[in-house]
Amino acid sequence: MVPLKQVALFISCAALGVQAAASSDQLSWDKAYVKAKSVVDQMSIEQMVNLTTGAGWGSQCVGNTRPVDDDLFPVLCLQDGPIGVRLANNVTAGLSGITVAQTFDKAAFRDRGVYMGKEFRGKGINVQLGPCIDPMRSPWAGRLWEAFGEDPYLAGVATSETVQGIQSQDVAATIKHYIGNNQETNRTTSSVVIDDRTLHEVWLYPYARGIEAGSAMVMCSYNMLNGTYACENEYTLTTILRDELGFQGATVADWGATHSTIDSANAGLDLSMPVRIYEGEDDFAKNLTQAVKDGKVKKERLAEMATRVAATYYKLKQDASDFPDGAINSTDPDSAPVVPVQDDHAKIVRDSGAAAVVLLRNEDNVLPLGDSIQKIAIVGSDGGPNPGDINNCTDGACDQGTLAMGYGSGVVTFPYLISPKEGIESAAGDNVEITYTYDDYDLDKAADISKDADVALVFANAIAGEGVDRANLSLWHNGDDLIKAVADANENTVVVIHATGPVLMPWLDHPNIKAILWPGLPGQESGNSLADVLFGKVNPSGRLTYTIAKNEEDYSAHISKEAEFEYDEKLLVGYKWFEAKDIKPLFEFGFGLSYTTFDYSDVKASVDDKEQPKVKATLQVQNTGDVDGAEIPQAYISFPESAGEPPKLLRGFDKVDVKAGKKENVSFEFGKTELSIWDVSQREWIVPSGEYTIHVGASSSDIRTSATFTL
Ligand code: NOJ
Hints:
The protein has 17 helices and 29 strands. The chain has 3 domains: 29-83 and 126-320, TIM Barrel (Alpha-Beta Barrel); 346-546, 3-Layer(aba) Sandwich (Rossmann fold), CATH 3.40.50.1700; 596-710, Immunoglobulin-like. A hairpin with a 5-residue loop joins strand 28 (691-697) and strand 29. Helix 4 packs parallel to helix 5 (152-167), helix 5 runs parallel beside helix 6 (196-212) and helix 13 packs parallel to helix 14. Helix content is 25%, strand content 19%. The strands form 7 sheets. Strands 1-2-3-4-5-7-10 form a 7-stranded mixed beta sheet. The chain has a 6-stranded mixed beta sheet with strand order 11-16-15-14-12-13, with helices on one face. Strands 9-8-6-17 form a 4-stranded mixed beta sheet, with no helix packed on it. The structure holds 1-deoxynojirimycin. 1-deoxynojirimycin binds at residues 62, 80-81, 129, 176-177, 254-255, 409.
């Protein structure tokens, strides 16, 4: 087995010759402001307005700031998206947010951020429009796959590492979509009603971590929050972002999410982007200029807007002479030159793709596939290549062949896509016979191919994307019947599902389904990552980032078609709902098996500082099997009852490589970030007094050891 921590070693240390290496550290905000101010001081009102009013789709970037004066300040390029460079060639199409989150591995989050940052920088892009960090509220949500799953703490860690990774390469990260943008249905017209405690503890939590990590930009979302559009919402843009969280970067509107000029500017919007959904195409610039002249927006506020935008550029040292020129695409020979930026990023994608695979079931140790396997059946279109061009649907909006990404503005053009069949074929070698059918509807053929194979791998998927929520949680393309047909025919059936989120599993109790693998959306190296796990080169350690329920009704939040709707589950998002209501899911948050087993010693908690606070917990994890593996111990905290929190909250996790038979020490530290709740009346984060319990285990339900401490 390859120790999974090695993933971290495959980060390239130097960019290829075509890319100028990133300059070391970022500038402090203070220094960036000094530079920005000295430039903005020289600008006319019209020039400042141009820096705060975007143009869309005019160049190779999905958005630009408008020209000021080349000698004063350049035009900035803003480009999607959260998983890599959109609409570009010679780039890497890697793991989606929801899938890298399955690694529960900070190093994997960071490595992904770093390589994405390198690619954006290599293409001369100033601002990456990602990561997307909103926790998953409802499994039907079209865009949940762009972000990191249902838990705000996990999303917060992933956000922090991703932002730091991206910005280490001098590219501005944009955390989005702020805030309450958790469904596609009526996304530009509906108002979500969220109480202040829930807003802070659930939906803001990852944003707070992203801002702590230095995110240069925050994108306000399409929807209204409590009756006010997110891009003209003074409470969220100024009171929370700037006053509470100390955000010093720029707020940028989602494309067309600006609904007013004066209100937006005064509320705290710094950069409006076009594709209008309010007035005329150029109205923001025209109106803002006039509003400043009329005194309806103070000139100082305009200067502040321009300064904030400019400061992001200086903070990331994009004024350095070696920051590359824009060269995103090159399909048109007259346009920008070819700039390959992939370096060895495919290796990172392959390794983290394997580390992300969740093993949901493995009866009779049917996996990993050993030397006795001579005949493998592969069934289902999801196991094979796209019958046409891998990129033949605009923004990925079709489900043909294996699914490795969702669709919408968050996609990346595949340079290639290793299908499961290709990955399995190259891992299996010449002595294994592989038969296959990609016909999802010919059940007789599926059974026929499967019946005398040593193992039958049946593939199914469920896609989702931007603009529309899922109609149901069922598998696409006859997946349920196909799985059943294969399981009826072969007693060693392995189900593999590529899905953007949870699916229903009506076939789960079939006795012949011996193993289930959940690789998520692994990107271009899909088949190789999967084969690494199937054949035991990598011992699986991925964990579910959301709850897979028995029934659709079991989930706390469904898509609303109402013009205004309340987040009435309040703090009970995801597994917290299931625990509070005592609903047993099929597979719980944090669940995932390994080819080995682990024991946990008793956890010991000590309070090092009551005031700050600082609490430490230590334990040992022992690999009790006979293969090396990685375990993901997860620390959940139960707050004192008086705090009114859900039964328990994830507040720590680690990925620990443990050799067969050996033990490793694990420790967690909890401070204010982990131990406080939002006090609505005092308007601050407070640490409740009383008895806390720390639970450490292998999933949200599989708690192995607990201890108490008092604050
Ligand atoms: C709309 C999407 O919501 C956002 O995520 C994206 O960055 C912009 N379009 C630009 O494409």
